[in-house]
Structure formats: C-alpha cells, structure tokens
Specification:
The complex is a heterodimer. Chain A is an alpha/beta fold. Chain A is built from nine helices and eight strands. Chain A has helices at residues 10-22, 51-64, 67-78, 85-97, 109-131, 153-163, 199-205, 211-224, 233-239, and strands at residues 2-6, 28-32, 44-46, 135-136, 142-146, 169-173, 178-182, 187-190. The chains are: A alpha/beta, B alpha/beta. Bound molecules: iron/sulfur cluster. Iron/sulfur cluster binds at residues 66, 68, 70, 73, 75-76, 112-113, 180 of chain B. Chain A: This is DNA metabolism protein.
C-alpha cells in the first residue's frame, strides 16, 4: 500500500488521482498534511499539486459525470469532513474506471458515502441560511458570526447575495477565521484580526441605536408564539441542536 | 418607534395569532428585482418554538378587536382580554427590520374583524402594498382573506401577496354553526372560489405574456381545528380532499384544539391538546398528496379513525397484507412508495440504483430505508427474509416493540379521554 500525502486542496486531490494512474498504483491511502521526512508510513509519495494535471483529471471526470455530479463532489470535498479523503478518492477512481455514469449507483459504497456527505453539507448550509442572525452596525451594514461544523461559507454566497441585495453585509466564520463581505456590488473573502475576547464587545459597541430594540422584540416574539401546553423539548432540540444556540438571538 | 408600546402590542398580537398553525413560506417563486430586498422560494424555518413548530414568518394580527364571537377563539368579542391594534406603518417597520436581520421569511398577517369585512381587508392589503411598492420588498407575504370582503379587494390582495387563506375552522358546517354562529362555510367558500378562478386566469396569462403580473403564486391554504367538535378523521380527511380537489388548495392545516376558554360547547380547559391525532392527520394528508394514496384507502366508514399508535401508512399496509411482499428489485416506483419504512427519497434511490445491480438489505439500509419496518413487506437480493407468515397484528406488535415515536409519550394521557 502506498500513502499519498497531499495539501488538502481540491486541485491537490485531483493531482493525487493523476499520480495514481500515472504510477499505476493500486491500493493507496490518501493523507492530508505536511510532507515529513521519515514519518511513519512505509511507502509514501508526496503529491505536488499541479494545475495542468488536476485539469486533465477534471476534464476526464466531466466526461463521466453530470455537471451536478461534479459540483456535488466539489461540495463534499470543500466541506473538509475529517477522514473522508479516501472515500472521495475511491469515488473518483470508480467514476473514471467505469464506462457509464455511476452517480446513481447507490449500491456502491463510495457513491453512497459521497451522497451522504453531500447531504450533511447541504443540511449544514440550510442551517446556516436559517440560523444566521444579522446585527445592524452604525455604518448601516449588517454583521453575523457563525461556527458551522463544515466549511460551508463559500456555498452561502449565492443565497445571501440574492436575498440581501440592497444592504451591505458580512458573515464571519469564527472557527475558520475568514468571512464573506458584500459591498452592494461584489462579494469578497476577508479576514479580520481582532483580539480573541474583545470581539463580541467590539461589535456590541458598534450597534445602531435601534439594534437592541429589535433584538428584544424578536426575543419577545419568540416567547409569545410558544404554546406551553404543546411543549416538546425533544423535538425542539432535534431541530435546533444546542451547539447553534450561542449565535441565535432568541436563544441567548 | 416607542419600544415599550410596540413591545406590548407585539406580545398581544403575536400571542393571539399563534393558534393559526400554518407557517409555511414555501411554494412561491418571487425573485429579488431591481436590487431590492428579499425573495421567496423554498421557505426556511428560521427557528423552532419549544413545542417544535417551525418559525418562518412574523405571524401577527393587525388587531384582536373583533365583532364576532367564535367560541374557540381567544379574540372573540365576549372574551375579557387586552385589546390592541397595530398601525399599517408599524407592521411594515417590524417586517422589514426582522427580515433584514434574517429572523424571518416574511409576514403572515391576519386580523380580527373590526367594523366590517371590507374595512379590515383594506388595511391588510394596504400593508402588503406598502411593503411591495414603497420598500421594494420581495419576501413572502401571506394574508388572511376575510370572508365577505369584496372581489376588488381580494384581487388586489392577490397582486401583492404570495399566499391567501380562509380558515374553514370546523371540518363540517354543523360544527361551524355550533361554535361560530356568525359564520358559514358558504361565506368562506366564496372568496376561495373567486381566488381559485383568478389564480387560474393569471397563470394562463403569465404563460402567454412574460410581463403579466404574478398573482398569489403560492396559492391558497386553509386550516381546520380538530378536537373541538366531534367530527371523526374520516369526515375531516374527506372534507380536506374535497377542498384540495375543488379549490386547488396548496395545503390544509390541521390544528389540534388548544383549550383556552371555558364554554359548555367545548372540551374542558384541562383537556390535553390532541397532538398525536394532529400528527397522524398530517401523515395521512401527506400520503394523499405525495404517495398516491386515495383518501378512502386511508379512512372510510369501516375505518373512521386513524390509528393513534401507528402511522397511517403502516396501518394501511397491515390491513392489506395480500399486496405484500413485493420485490424491490422489480416493483414499480408507485408500489415501492407504499412500503412502510421507505420514504420518497429512498424509493427514488432504489429505482435508480437497481439499474446497476440487484440490491440487498445492506444496500437498502445505506439508502436510508428503515429496514426494521420494511422487512415485513419486501424481498430483495438476499437469502434472509421474513419467512414467517405473520398476521398484520403480529407485525404491528413487533414494530411497536422496537420503535420510539417522538409523540408516543403523549398517547397514554390522550387515550384516557376517548
Ligand atoms: S372572526 Fe376570527 S378573530 Fe373574530 S372571533 Fe371569529 S375566529 Fe376570532
């Protein structure tokens, strides 16, 4: 067995696929991380990410899969779910080695796994679309902080751009330390550097005058729509798992 | 805005609106135009109440003043409660500010009837119009149509709202006469009929002229209260079916009666909310709309009530054991959809995947089939299958012994009441 070490990017993954075929490797294991001399693996190879090679693999994949199929693969990889590299590699190899399109062959374990990963990523994306809470700042722009389980920020751009086209907004992933900012024309990726603990205080200090009032109105609304005689906490927590509460105005 | 006053109004008018259970914000296709605010398509639940219901819209009454005296309603004239009324501008400001913070998908505005139907409807329409025309707002708007309002107002409402609804409240005319003497189904059906025709007309125009205005793109819905009057599930579901068929309703909502008032015509105040029954009705409704079941396969004169301890699909299957087992590697999609434990998504996966090779239990499990349930009704590419010739009743016991319903803990308290 050969262990391939790659940089974790999508191009890196595709280059790894290229190397598998170029060196006619059979049983391989994909590993994300730095190349360390003398590390634990018996047989190892470093994948040097290369756009031309990656491009050739992508082209081959596009012949075998539908456009949607390629997008789904990309989304599954983008999510950075730990320990899934080998399933993604398995999926790509299976797609390339088979004559017909295998996207719907759910009997195959790689296809099924990728479909599960896509489902997990989608769910996280939908949750973010639902649970993001913007706060209005004095300069008229809106700010939201999130800590999603997977890296879904890039997948959120389209939704928020088409919904909030007439206001400036920023969504910041605190865990991965980057955000997206929309300035009424374009969106761009940004990083902010503020000190770990002053973060929340800084933002509260920058609120518009009526931000506090609307937050309170929303909390009040949330309380008054509850019907006590129907209480079902199990269902409630299933819909909004506790780890999301921290950024939900109505649950703080 | 005066924070204290508006907070008080919001508390009163949200509280009075919460018994209307419909909260869907889906089914519309309103796009954001001219760099405005918002869009409406798939409907997002932005939060969930502690009883697990979706919070998607700002659901409020314009006012809880009312000239009517419906027995089941907290806002009825003879009830001694605090009354309040929003101004049109207040509703607009709340909607826009909640929407911008991503709290909601839009507005669901209903109202008690003050003065008369037209007077009330005109104000509801004015809110929607202001949002659309002055604020370039393209989020979701659901307006209650007030029975008895003029066709002109209904027409205007359709031009600005995504969805309109008239609540039937009681599944039968008799139930309605008993509890809401001021109302009649006839009066409620009138705006429904008008809207149905207007929606059809606009859809046809839209096909011909791209520029034609959109009209209530998310259609009409209604709500019936269950458990306040003695109608059985057979009557309720047949009446729902009638409205789906004749008025092209998008949804019928079933609202388990929450006892809020002392009245000899109503269940006592300590009666628990029939949540399990409500859930079963939704499941049955779902089977009618998405699984190709005919209403009388689910309930009929011999089977007037839905089972409370098992869902209606399983219940149908064990009454019809002669249809099973089926072979998932061959059966038509519409037959597979009828198997307990197989949902729409897994059924579609099965049909796609079997083209590549025969499926076994392991495959089915990975596709999300609940094999514990389905195994009594299907065969697949595997030597192991349920060989015992079990009766429907035995299957029910096996399944009940291994499943945990999210509602079942309430069943016992509820059963005592029947
Ligand atoms: S008309 Fe509507 S608001 Fe008035 S009492 Fe009847 S149900 Fe309640």
């Amino acid at each position: 067995m050969t262990t391939l070490i790659y940089d974790g990017t999508f191009e890196g993954l595709l280059t790894a696929v290229f190397d598998v075929y170029a060196h006619k490797l059979d049983v391989v294991k994909l590993h994300q991380g730095e190349w360390l001399e003398g590390a634990l693996f018996d047989e190892k190879m470093q994948v040097i990410t290369d756009e031309t090679r990656a491009g050739r693999v992508l082209k081959a994949l596009k012949l075998k899969l539908s456009t949607l199929g390629v997008q789904r693969l990309y989304a599954a990889h983008l999510a950075e779910i730990p320990g899934e590299d080998n399933n993604l590699l398995g999926f790509i190899r299976y797609a390339i080695d088979t004559d017909e399109n295998i996207e719907e062959d759910y009997g195959n374990r790689y296809v099924m796994r990728v479909s599960e990963m896509v489902r997990m990523v989608r769910r996280e994306k939908h949750r973010m679309e639902a649970f993001i809470r913007f706060q209005k700042l004095r300069d008229g722009s809106f700010y939201a902080a999130i800590e999603p389980d997977f890296n879904v920020l890039p997948l959120l751009i389209k939704h928020f751009r088409s919904r909030y086209a007439d206001m400036k907004w920023m969504i910041y992933d605190l865990r991965r330390k980057y955000g997206i900012y929309y300035d009424l024309h374009d969106t761009q990726f940004i990083t902010l550097d503020f000190a770990e603990n002053s973060r929340q205080a800084d933002i509260v200090a920058a609120y518009t005058e009526d931000e506090g009032m609307y937050q309170n109105l929303w909390k009040n609304y949330f309380k008054s729509v509850n019907i006590t005689s129907r209480k079902n906490t199990k269902l409630h927590v299933r819909h909004i798992p506790k780890r999301y509460w921290k950024h939900l105005t109505e649950k703080i | 805005m005066d924070a204290d006053r508006i907070t008080e109004k919001l508390n009163i008018l949200a509280d009075a609106a919460k018994y209307d259970v419909s909260c869907s914000s889906s089914g519309s296709k309103r796009k954001n135009e001219n760099k405005g605010l918002g869009n409406a398509s798939n409907g997002i639940c932005h939060s969930y109440t502690e009883d697990g219901r979706c919070v998607s819209l700002l659901k409020i009454l314009l006012t809880n003043h009312c000239i009517f005296d419906c027995a089941y309603c907290v806002s009825r004239k003879s009830n001694d409660i605090k009354r309040a009324a929003f101004t049109v501008q207040e509703v607009v400001d709340l909607t826009i500010n909640f929407y911008r913070r991503n709290y909601i998908e839009g507005l669901f505005l209903s109202s008690g009837i003050f003065k008369d139907a037209d007077f009330t409807m005109e104000r509801l329409v004015r809110v929607a119009k202001k949002l659309r025309l002055e604020h370039n707002f393209h989020g979701y708007i659901h307006l209650k149509s007030i029975p008895g309002a003029s066709d002109e107002l209904m027409n205007e409402a359709g031009l600005y709202a995504d969805r309109l609804s008239v609540n039937l409240e009681m599944p039968t005319e008799a139930g309605l006469k008993l509890l809401a003497p001021d109302k009649s189904h006839q009066e409620m059906i009138k705006p429904m009929g008008y809207l149905k025709n207007a929606i059809i007309k606009h859809t046809e125009e839209k096909k011909l002229f791209k520029k034609a205005p959109i009209f209530a793109p998310a259609g009409q819905s209604t709500q019936v209260i269950i458990g306040a009057t003695p109608e059985n599930d057979n009557q309720i579901l047949h009446s729902a079916n009638y409205f789906y068929k004749n008025f092209k309703l998008k949804r019928v909502y079933y609202s388990g009666y929450v006892p809020v008032l002392e009245d000899s015509r109503l269940p006592a105040l300590n009666t628990s909310v029939p949540m399990v029954r409500e859930n079963r009705l939704y499941q049955a409704d779902w089977l009618m709309r998405n699984y190709g079941f005919h209403v009388s396969e689910i309930v009929n004169n011999h089977q007037p009530h839905l089972d409370l301890d098992i869902d209606p699909k399983l219940s149908w299957a064990i009454r019809n054991m002669q249809e099973f087992p089926i072979d998932v590697n061959r059966a038509d999609l519409k037959i597979i959809l009828r198997v307990p434990g197989i949902g729409v998504l897994s059924a579609q996966k099965i049909v796609s995947a079997r083209k590549f090779g025969k499926l076994n239990w392991e495959h089915l499990k990975r596709m999300g089939v609940s094999v514990n349930r389905a195994k009594y009704f299907i065969t697949c590419q595997s030597k192991e299958f349920e060989r015992r010739d079990l009766t429907g009743n035995a299957i029910k016991q096996f399944i009940l012994a291994t499943s945990h319903s999210k509602y079942i803990k309430n069943v016992h308290t509820q059963l005592n009441l029947f």
